[in-house]
């Protein structure tokens, strides 16, 4: 009898650890367009009437194909602090979800085909401890505009993770441990006004061909608080940047072809850790190329083209702010 009970318990344990949602229920809150909140308690996450947002308020060890049966398009799906450790490839197959937030969990790998052929416009995977983003993790997402991977543990930027994302215009990688940007890192950067934030990482090296395959224009590139001690301006050749931010590094030398003029930089933010001669070449270079220099530590008498105050907010995207406003209002109401 005892053996029978033990056997049953072990069997049950194995079942539940492999299929955690199949035998238990998941608690979540649904919000409709009038922001009426409703607690649901179901074996999978489902909607049987039009729903704007779903907030999962439970432990969900794994996100997998079959976890959802959404009968209506869903604007916003949240898994924040849900003890999630894995996302299976194609887990959202056939579900119309536009904004997905999986934050403050313990997902270490974003696997190949995790996000593909979906209608998603915004994916936020920040604060998960992600160490690896595999090739084709994000593929064929024709509406996707923003990928938020901030505050993870990435040491490299895998450009092959991003395939056929024609509308992507923001990739946010702040506060990871990325050490270098190799050749063709940004081949997937293809839209005008792309914003690329890799501030607060550990970048010590940027390859001259980092932007080689990119045809984006008006790119905003944020590289503040990294470990750069030198930078080749050839990185910028043949490309156009609205803004390049290099403050919080200790850049002592500019290398590369200072004569070449086949590029554009609107504003360059940097500080003066140069020797006198290098600083003079920097100044000459910015003047010749009509670059507005924003350099608070530069001695102002040396500056012919003193920086204009720049009015746009850096670091935070407009989309994110709008989205955040909408979603926070839902949260507040619950
Ligand atoms: C959901 O259902 C489970 C099991 O039926 C129960 O233990 C739990 O309290 C329920 N939660 C809510 C929020 O109703
Ligand atoms: C999903 O829900 C619909 C009804 O809302 C139902 O007809 C359908 O069988 C469900 N699909 C699955 C795979 O459970
Ligand atoms: C993530 O893992 C850490 C350490 O392993 C643990 O302390 C923390 O509670 C976990 N968080 C979640 C949301 O599972
Ligand atoms: C992306 O779409 C193309 C064309 O529809 C298809 O050939 C390719 O296999 C898709 N890639 C993935 C990763 O699904
Ligand atoms: C870059 O090239 C792709 C085609 O490969 C095109 O769809 C896109 O519009 C181009 N981007 C810019 C800014 O010209
Ligand atoms: C770049 O952005 C500026 C300001 O937003 C705009 O005036 C300019 O037309 C843009 N140039 C290109 C090539 O997109
Ligand atoms: C500059 O870019 C254009 C297209 O964007 C390309 O045709 C040309 O070969 C590039 N030149 C260099 C020197 O890379
Ligand atoms: C900077 O430009 C000035 C005047 O055009 C020139 O005399 C000087 O040698 C240049 N300095 C450097 C370091 O290129
Ligand atoms: C330099 O830039 C300013 C504004 O950024 C622009 O008005 C001016 O025409 C530019 N001058 C040249 C020579 O490109």
UniProtKB/TrEMBL annotation:
How far does the signal peptide extend, from start to end residue?
1-24
Claim: Transmembrane is one of the keywords in the record:
yes
Q: Which GO terms describe its biological process?
A: phospholipase C-activating G protein-coupled receptor signaling pathway; sensory perception of taste
Q: Which InterPro entries match?
A: GNG13, Leu-rich_rpt, Leu-rich_rpt_typical-subtyp, LRR_dom_sf
Could you cite one Gene Ontology molecular function of this protein?
A: G-protein beta-subunit binding
Record-linked SUPFAM superfamilies: L domain-like
Entry GO terms, CC: heterotrimeric G-protein complex
Residues annotated as transmembrane: 315-333
Q: Does the keyword Repeat apply?
A: yes
Q: Which UniProt keywords apply?
A: Leucine-rich repeat, Membrane, Repeat, Signal, Transmembrane, Transmembrane helix
Protein name (record): Uncharacterized protein
